[in-house]
Amino acid sequence: MEDIREFSLSELEERIKELSEPSYRAGQIYGWLHKKHVGSFSDMSNISKVLREKLSDRYFITRLRKLEVLVSRIDGTRKYLFSLGDGNVIEAVLMRYHYGNSVCISSQVGCRMGCRFCASTLDGLVRNLTAAEMLSEVYAIEDDTGERVSNIVIMGSGEPLDNYDEVVRFLRMISDKDGLNISQRNITLSTCGIVPRIYELAKLRLQITLALSLHAPTQEKRLITMPIAKAYELSEVLEACRAYSEETGRRVTFEYAVVKDVNDSLEDAVRLSAMAAKLHAHINLIPVNPVRECGFSEPDQKKLMEFRDELLKHGSNVTIRREMGRDIDSACGQLRRRYIADAGLRAD
């Protein structure tokens, strides 16, 4: 059976046509799936019983089961642990800002990129998520809170460009006027730098923000924490980002996890500033979220401010990411790993 939530509206129209039903039924069904988020064909009250039975014989609707919700006492951030249909578990995070609600979603179960400061990659990649499962992360959070999501960040567990086709399908569907209609300008995709996929994404001319997980100002330092650097030289990654910016007209963001005694020197800041200037990139500093298994720690506040000030001195556009949900283990992969350990399950 196929997952009906995976279909675009035009694809759904074709399926409905095959069932000898009028095309307008596709729009009704699409609305139930992507605006009202129903999880059962029986809930589609303006669809005939005969059609509902035809649909249930051929298709299923992805549903995520909410296993756990952690709520930060500091800022109200909500971290969700969801169970997929096959029993795998994933995380998503709701963050409330003055401009609206932002949801950080996962694109894979686990990750194979091996970045040394990230908990989601410790057990490797289990499988890719489907577009329907990614959509369902957003829908489940809206249903749980009763609040609209206005911003999407694909920055949870997984490397989005390692799941390229399904992520692109998700991007098109989440911004579809017949679905949640979230502006592409309110969507950020974070990548560690899979060069060929960055070029492919650029050619689509979507209006999303590309965030490069940079984390080092030189190829040598990038090799210390990011195995992807063995496959793609930093110069190659930056050239791909330049192409993305030129093709889409969208400014690229550099995500820079500041790690104590690894990439936090003033010399590092000078090099980072020069690199950002060439691409007119925004720099987002992230004090690394300590993960016990990784052995890295964040710099103290004084060192972080000195690093930021050095960037500003050299004309960089820089912010320090507001730390959300630090008291609830909101870093990617932490809640999932704890759940697996507590349940006595294997991560693979």
H/E series: EHHHEEEEEEEHEHEHEHHEHEHEH
Largest sheet: 10 strands, mixed
Give the overall average pLDDT.
92
Q: What structural class do you assign from the helix and strand content?
A: alpha/beta
Residue runs with pLDDT of under 50 for 5 or more positions: none
Tally of helical runs: 11
**CA-CA gap between termini:** 25 Å
How much strand?
15-25%
Outline of this structure?
With 348 residues, this protein is α/β, with parallel strands linked by helices. 36% of the residues lie in helices and 20% in strands. It has a ten-stranded mixed sheet, with helices on one face.
Descriptive labels:
348 residues; alpha/beta; 10-stranded mixed sheet; two-stranded parallel sheet; 11 helices; globular
Describe this structure in words.
It is a single chain. The chain has 348 residues and is of the alpha/beta class. 36% of the residues lie in helices and 20% in strands. The protein has helices at 9-18, 24-34, 49-58, 131-145, 164-174, 195-204, 219-225, 234-248, 266-279, 301-313, 334-343; strands at residues 2-3, 59-60, 65-71, 78-83, 89-97, 100-105, 108-110, 125-128, 151-154, 187-191, 209-213, 253-258, 282-287, 317-320. Strands 3-4-5-6-9-10-11-12-13-14 form a ten-stranded mixed beta sheet, with helices on one face. It has a two-stranded parallel ribbon with strand order 1-2. Helix 10 links the parallel strand 13 and strand 14 (317-320). Helix 1 (9-18) packs across helix 2. The protein is globular and about 70 Å long. 43% of the residues are buried. The model has no long low-confidence stretch (mean pLDDT 92).
